[in-house]
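Supplementary Note 3. Input sequence used for the single-chain structure prediction.
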Amino acid sequence: MVCATGLTGCSTAPNNATGNFGQPPQLHLKHPRDAASSQVLLRQFAAAHARADSLVRLAIPDTSDQKSLLTGYGFSYPHWVAYTTDTLPGPALEYEFSYSLLHQGDTIGSALVTIGPDRRVYPSELAEIVAYQRFLTGDLEIGPRQAVGVAVGAGAKEKGAEVGFYAGGFMPDTLTGLQQAGIYYQEVIANPRTCFWLVENDCNGCVRLKVNASNGKVIGQDKIIFVY
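The predicted structure, written as discrete structure tokens, is reproduced below.
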């Protein structure tokens, strides 16, 4: 099985892929670097980046494991979100950091951590980052291609299949302490059903399945019905 074009939460990555965790990206500034607005943007972004990465380290403390993390960056402005390929006009309303796991040739998830210009942590998808650690330790063994294989065996169509990873037992949280990370760890171990792959085809009457990321069993199934 292969990942479909435009697959959510899954893309094929080379086995020797390495992440960019902790590495500052190159930013394209609208105004000169020494301009006041540019200086505020650079200062806020650096502080937000350090804050977001510090939260990820709570969940994935081993520096060798952190090398498997891929970070994407977003800058929230009124009515639009800019990325590192865009020209940034000045300080953003929020700074977004999306973390994915490079694992066994796949890119898993895209957990979003949002930081304010004052370093405030907004509710984020940190439970998924905790789940990444369980992939690295082997507690979660089913990757996206395996999940698609299970779903096809249960009636889903392989062509055009979309698959996304979810840590569905948790609400978005701020996860600012190690104790909260420990609670998440125990929940994932005690109830692996909270971590699953959602495999679906965007077509009327097509099946949609949840596949347990721990053992590959189907834990939920329904059909997509378009309402006209």
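The first strand starts at residue 10 and ends at 12. The chain has five helices and twelve strands.
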